[in-house]
Amino acid sequence: MAGLTAAALAVIGFFAYQASAAQERDGKPSASHSAHPSPGKGDGKGDGDKRTPAERETALPAGSGKGPRVVYALKRQRVWLVGKDGRATRTFAVDPSAVSPRPGTYKVTSRSAHVQGSDGVPVENVVRFATVDGVTIGFSAALDGSTPDPDPSHKTGGIREKRADGKALWLHAPVGTPVVVVP
After folding, report:
1. In the chain, where does DSSP find H-type helix?
2. Under CATH, which number does the domain 34-182 receive?
3. pLDDT tens digit sequence for 132-142
4. Which residues lie across from 79 on neighbouring strands?
């Protein structure tokens, strides 16, 4: 019985994907539009932007580069994983570090599967990309799932994400991957 249910869900998912792709070819937004925004589109600057506030919040920032990359928006506290086709494959909220990088383009410089974070918390899937005033900046997920507020009196560089998001970023961003930081 469980096998039939799984098969039925797979078929429904396939048909939903096909319908979504057909709508996008016709120029009509699909329900999945906010999860896979097009680069440079929907920046909220033009007249007639009919997206919801949530769709505008999760839209890939215009002018955030080309090709496969990681995009980190400082004010929005959000990350996008962008594929070869320039479309976001995943976006998620993060908790910023006490020390932030300046807007610009960086590259992943190193990674660690499991280490102790600069705040003393054990973390995984660490992806480092910048150094500011001697503080190394990178994305990480706490093993206990915590996402504490940064303590401004303690200079830390860990940008915290949920564990599932950390795993996705780890798989997406080997050493050398561009990381574009936008305001």
Report:
1. 2-25, 53-58, 163-172
2. 2.40.440.10
3. 999 999 999 99
4. 72, 92
